């Protein structure tokens, strides 16, 4: 229990709230800020002036004023080109990097394949090179805020230790420390879980904008979730919550890479789909898309594979709906492609499992930001420090 | 996104925070309030004076001052005898009612059996009689705050409609409206889910005090959970979250009262235990305790039953640990008794399912407040209005 804030705390909170608003929603008129934030016009003016002086926002007359009476309200924009973070994403098959401006624009990007089995030090080097390349192109007056990293695994937030990433093949690997050492002067670096950061971005500016209760699923070889309850991430005690891929759904099922048996990801992950399709010799996103395409073209074994996996997707989503009663479930990664071809199957199965009250307002969605969600989400880890207290870095 | 509060909002927030602190923690010295709430001494003095005038707290010299130097700090207490709520609990086998004082003390109580199959109107009448009886014994200067109701089912919070309570046998029953009509002038009445309100109480003043991430399980015929993530209830969009009893764990299992198959409660609820023990002709808490006692005395069929159910308890708890990464799991209702005799079995199974990072700080617990948690929790539904803004009711 915490007492109410002081005047000074309120002012800093309001600065952060205004900056966060334009960071998430983009250019916004003073008039709209006044009504959205519940502050009066002079307060909005003073806060905007302070953020402008700090180089975090700029103000200009709106581009479209035709047909409106009176003096148009100034529009406040985040300084996307001048305030930026680096975002790195370590995925099963890809290593990706981007420079992301305040406001969530991707200003520059690089990516390369990640051969399965690649070790931490071998992954850190290309990522570091990407950052150095992108840095060379940055103009002198742009301000670096920090670096955020998304890893498809369980991450200890305070130091970036990857506790377990079975699909990447890493256990207790100090990814944060390795990247900090390699990037040298790159300053503040924060590591988070890939599904968690993607979920937050789809929640703030994507397919689940306006929804307070969201389950964002991300699948490839493994399956993870970023879960939002009442507008906030369900992190758990150590930050390891959301490991829905290791919810056991079939006690009589296959062994899982985690050591257990019948985990959800053994039924809906890439390996299961390819096995049902008779393509166990293949792997990766292209192989999954190959099965989905074949199913759409009428290939009966591919259709069988999609049906089998669709059944189990509906099964697990039904369970999660009973547990979380979300407004939206989002299918990311290759689960997106499987969802698009198996939607009827999934709906029918989850209708049999989810209780009526838990499914009455449910929306099943695909991501709006696709694979960019992880990069924008990684950048959010860095921007978060700035948004919490914009004057700390002024 | 919301801007920071005004001065007046801060004052009201601080009044609520102080009142909530003594409501949860009991008598607290001004010195401790100063340090816990992060406010200075004069502010604490002013807030206490205001709450005293409103009749919500009282101040007195501490009882024990021997051996301390200086003037002892005054102790602030909630006015438990003078400010109260009624709490009602509708359970599978019982109807219970209590008068609960501010601070969570049960001042008076009544209960009776609820025959299985009893309809809403038949349940409302004895509860109403209990309230009228208890009201007759209340002194004239005591202040009534409201009535809270806990129901073992899915409840729409805004109007107290019970959407689905399969173990009680109710579907779309207007329990809130029926109680309001019967209680007449009883004022504000709020209905909540039994496991949810119990969880909040074990979290604030029971077995999970100090834990921010908690799964509280309550079992009898059915199984429900109240889930706390980062200190807040996971309610879901309509308030129906936590229906873990309808997480399907055994796709090849028995039909469930919800219409699905293999739900967790079909494997760990009362019916499963009694069936494995060869006692399907019995039902209720006494019958469950009979099996547990027999298992402890060495009865092999009872031991078999407890082992079977223990396996499935561990199974589902392991799933929930992967999903929520809680610090504490609490076993309430008859699950408490089964847990006590099957703890080793449960531990062993959940160790096989929960990921290492998700189980490294886990504590498995029995409730501290037992069956009183639902009554105290129901009263909290009424007190919540007061704690949100103590001056509203002044």
Automatic annotation (TrEMBL), chains A, B:
Enumerate the InterPro entries for this protein: ATPase_NBD, ROK, WH-like_DNA-bd_sf, WH_DNA-bd_sf
Q: Name one Pfam family in it.
A: ROK
Q: Which SUPFAM superfamilies does the protein's record reference?
A: Actin-like ATPase domain, Winged helix' DNA-binding domain
Family note = Belongs to the ROK (NagC/XylR) family.
- Put simply, this protein is called ROK family protein
- According to its UniProt entry, this protein's organism is Paractinoplanes rhizophilus
